[in-house]
Amino acid sequence: MGHDGDGAIGASSSKPNGSVTRLLPSLDRLQPWMIPIAASEIIPSPIQPRKISINDRLFEIRTPRPGMLKFDSKLMNGRKLAAEEARREQKAESGTFVRKTTLSSNAPVKEKEETNFFQGPSSLFIFAEDNIIRRNAKAIIEWGPFEYFILLTIIGNCVVLSMEQHLPKNDKKALSEWLERTEPYFMGIFCLECVLKIIAFGFVLHKGSYLRSGWNIMDFIVVVSGVVTMLPFGTAIQTANQPVDTVDLRTLRAVRVLRPLKLVSGIPSLQVVLKSILCAMAPLLQIGLLVLFAIIIFAIIGLEFYSGAFHSACYNERGEIENVSEKPMPCTNKTSPMGVYNCDVKGTTCLQKWIGPNYGITSFDNIGFAMITVFQCITMEGWTTVMYYTNDSLGSTYNWAYFIPLIVLGSFFMLNLVLGVLSGEFAKERERVENRREFLKLRRQQQIERELNGYVLLIFKLLNKIISFFRYLEWILTAEEVILKEDRTTEEEKAAIMEARRRAANKKLKQASKQQSTETEEDFEEDEDEMEEEYVDEGGAVEDEFGKDILSFIRMPFNPTLTTERKKRGCCHSLGKFIKQLRIQIRIMVKTQIFYWSVITLVFLNTCCVASEHYGQPQWFTDFLKYAEFVFLGIFVVEMLLKLFAMGSRTYFASKFNRFDCVVIVGSAAEVIWAEVYGGSFGISVMRALRLLRIFKLTSYWVSLRNLVRSLMNSMRSIISLLFLLFLFILIFALLGMQLFGGRFNFPTMHPYTHFDTFPVALITVFQILTGEDWNEVMYLAIESQGGIYSGGWPYSIYFIVLVLFGNCKLI
């Protein structure tokens, strides 16, 4: 058993009880597939060869002597032994001391390690890796219920923020004051989560620490800004009549609306979508710089041409602007340019003392307002009004040469480049996903091949065992025959053998008869086609056996030759067969073309009846629609019951279209019954609208329409994360608008429909801005509500520009 190739291993064969640790360095020269053999040779044992004969073939088996082999479990696993040796060498190089003990072949392997105190990076220079506080903090943040608790806390905080109602002059209702008192509790929970993560992961210095993640940075900013707004600043704001209060930093308080973004860090699918969008920001940056450069160029040109052109208006003798209820327009005292507007009302004069249109925001007086006006024109919202303002003040001869290139280059070309970049990035992402899918498919195929190889070996082993069993059985039977034929076998032994054979034969016979007598009825839905072919001939007519079963079922009680038990069994059997054949007949009927077109016609007529209802209709027409609704509803109920009886409840409700049809019919029936009993509909706008959904019954019969609806639903499932991210975006900007403009859209002459006083209206306002409809009008009102152009209101235009850019161009 000596190994000639290695002196260390060869020496081990001569000293089986020597030290093992001095032999381990020689294992680094072995291949992984050689290690188990080498490990078995480290502790040698005498082997005794033995020769046996099987089927006239001679085999030599080397088996160990009993009691001579006492292998250690660790040493027998060669790969583990090599891994432990590599770990020892690595720790020896890194300064970790390993105390080794001399082992014999009969002793288990023991290692006692003395490691340094710092096994990994410490947290905050205080909590080591094995610190009990750090371990408990890590266990808490990795605990599933804690994650759900944080998500529920975020959702609850969003609900609290949305329930606030902002009133003019910073007035508050009792509900708003109570909601504000809940803020410290939410901040306490968020601070606890932040502290636990910092203790568990570390703060910022080492890899994998808290602030090395972008989501954690966002959480940290939200938490710190919330804490700062709640800190008291002592005597700096304390007076005799006013106690110490907190600094109301509106900007920092507005940061708390970013808390819904913490949902993204808890939902992996949203992280994937948001990361894809953020990855597209890099190529979009170049497009954004190009658009910004174009806006600056056109703003400078407009500043040169139209500076101060929008401050002239028609004033009457009392010094008031004429038609102040309507939108004034610029004017001029010159008559030479074509298209200018002169004050044609008697007693009015064009004076240049007007602040300008839209509270002076729409102008080219400086580079800031010029850029805002150019950006408004690029979004194609209100650009014609700006052009007509320039025509009224300067004439329409050359203004088209400015606005048409602005729209063509800015809107048609540059903003569409954003869509091109986004489509390209999504195409790349789709290609990466497809490549990964192909890779996973190939890896799965390789895994299946490896598993099949293992299964083949297993099958061969099982076949070998089966063959061995049958050979053993054959040997037993042969031995029994030999025993029976021997003269020295007694009669009792022969009787015992024959009795055992008789019992085995009887057992097999009982099993065969039981299996033959037991009738297994297959499921009706799985063999519907075979059953239809069985009872329907080539001409489509049903055989007479169905009628014979009915007659036999009717005549059975009048047959005196049958006993009571036989009548009972025959009655149940005929009834079950009759019901089965009736289901077959109804199944055939609902599959016919006549039934198909009848249902489609009824759906079309029902839709026409519902659509023909109008205001001021006569009473006879109302009664006709009422009774027609009863008729259609009854027909559809009968159709549903027929299909339910023919197909069975399991097969019927397995189809999504059948479930939808059942909900529509049951809802319509409930609405009709409620209206008849109580004299009115309990949900007329909802329940009666269910009748309109009957048109979708066509999808269960129209194959192409059904495939189209399925494709639409599949696409909705694929973009559900994107839709949720869009809703999250709208939610955040609605809450931010409530913090910035809540209770501010109150003017002496009007109270606009679009405002941020309440959460529902704020959602609608943000959605309106995303669609691009009159977003500039909302921006004008917001700037004016914050003091106007002369009191620092213009920076609030950034809110609307960011909302339009990221919402309209990026998400939508």
Give the overall shape. Answer: extended
User: What is the CATH topology classification name of the domain at 132-266?
Assistant: Four Helix Bundle (Hemerythrin (Met), subunit A)
Q: If helices are DSSP runs of H or I spanning 4 or more residues, what is the number of helices? A: 30
Question: How many E strands?
Answer: 6
CATH class of the domain at 132-266: Mainly Alpha
In CATH, what is the homologous superfamily of the domain at 132-266? Voltage-gated potassium channels. Chain C
Placed side by side, the strands forming the largest sheet appear as: 1-2
Global structural class: mainly alpha
Q: pLDDT average, as an integer?
A: 73
Largest sheet: 2 strands, antiparallel
At CATH's second level, what is the architecture of the domain at 132-266?
A: Up-down Bundle
Which stretches are low in confidence, meaning pLDDT under 50 for 5 or more residues running? 1-48, 57-83, 89-119, 234-248, 519-551, 553-558
The N- to C-terminal Cα distance equals 77 Å
Question: Rg from C-alpha positions?
Answer: 44 Å
Please estimate the helix content. Answer: 55-70%
Approximately what portion of the residues adopt beta-strand conformation?
A: under 5%
